[in-house]
Amino acid sequence: MRTDNVKRWARMAQKPLMLAALIVLMAFLAPGVFLSRSNIASILMAVCIYGLMVCGTIFPLLNGGIDLSIGSVGALAGSICVLVTLRYNSSVGGTVLGIACGLAAGILCGIFNGFISYQFAVPAFIVTLASKNIIYGIAQNITGMNTILSLDSKVMNWIGTGKIAGVNFTILFFLFIVVATYFLLNHTKFGRYTYAVGGNAKSARFSGVKVNLIGISAYAISGFTAALTGIVLSCFNRQAVATQCSGYDGDVLVALVVGGVSLAGGEGTIQGAAFGILLMGILNNAMVLLGVNSIYQDLLKGVIVIIAVALDMYVKNKGNGLSRNIWNRARRSAVNS
């Protein structure tokens, strides 16, 4: 019994130990810089912006789907927010309307993805990859491929740089979204149905779960948080550009996988996803501080992701003997050949 407890605690401590090891390593490699106040603030801001997307994108993955359009949705929502704000002379009402329009656009994009995927049984990978290009095209069209500045909106300025009790609003907002996501996944019927659909959609349907509705809702949530990210980023940068969230989809999906969210659906937690995005945030910052050429950054991230996922799977499978059985079969096959 004590051995089981030790193994369970070892699995629970695995992710915090990985983070701690990376932090100690970077403190050694970049002394006086990595742990500086400004650098920590920079990491937290990046984590919070990416993390907003993670909180919504986890839902399609738990359903057994995927959303590759989140970067384009964020760009479109941010562009709409800025354009509407400028249309009404950066007034408070105009900015609020711009935010509402951006969020509505994100939700509609998510509903579109979910409807096509579930109603017509089109693989989510194909649907969201196609919609990614369509949405980017729309964003490029409405912005004219220009960077649109919005320097006079007090609301946008406060959302991007405002503080509450000395803490940046974006950080507090991210924490609120994380808590809301945790509650939704663990304490509501929708959360239970999300895991059920991802685990076995046919069984869930036979049990009375409205699989299509759950799936479409998951994509709507993903679109909503992607739009939130684009709007917050536009407020932070005080501008909109059609490519402002380019590449976000890759880092978000990597963070989810590293955080233990299964691409097959039905497995994963928002706690694990938060670990994944924090790890990716520190890793991205570390490569910049160490002067790693951008050509090699994706290469290094890919290697680290493979190691992290392989280690996580090994630890999970070791307890049930699966890793040992795989090794034995591979050894017998080598001997027979």
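(ticket continues) Second input and output from the same batch:
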Amino acid sequence: MADLKDLTVEKFAEITASDAPAPGGGSVSAMAASIGAALAEMVANLTIGKAKYADAEEEMKALSAEAAVLRKELVLAIQKDTESFNLYMDALSMPKDTDEQKAARKEAMQNGLKEAAKVPLSVAETAVKIFPIAEAVVARGNSNAVTDGLVGTMMTRTGILGALLNVKINLGSIKDEAFVADMAEKVKALEEQAIAWEKKILESSGMIQL
């Protein structure tokens, strides 16, 4: 299968809708967050060069560049999430005829589950960096594009919470208690940040009250 980021929107949706287990919620969450970054970047770009926003010119240039880096990283994660899940699926198909094979299969499954948790956590950690950019472009960017910034904020929040759901479901099958405890703590903090940031940005616009 071609790299997911290179597919048309229609083809990506078609593959997601199929009976294949991946791409699924993890890849879609990464895509949602990448669109959140893209919209924040767009508002900054729509502000640059406008005389009305001359005072914000340099800030918007910097924000556009920051958002572009995050967008590209998250686009790459669309494929990475599917690949991490496939590690676990590959482990399931390993032979289990002998005790040695069973042990190797069990270890590979656990490693696959850990990787399948690490990748969406990384997506959430990357995506949370979009919020300060979104806040700035909504507050000081082109007012004609404020709703684009707000949609970007909501997409970012959805991407983060969706990614964290994938972390949670994998943690439920991981036996390494220290790993699970560490990841669970990070998940909780990121969830709280995403919800608080979205509420703050949306309500600051005066267009939505949560």
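Agent notes: Residues 57-92 form the longest helix (36 residues). The CA atoms of residues 96 and 103 lie 8 Å apart. Closing as not reproducible unless the customer responds.
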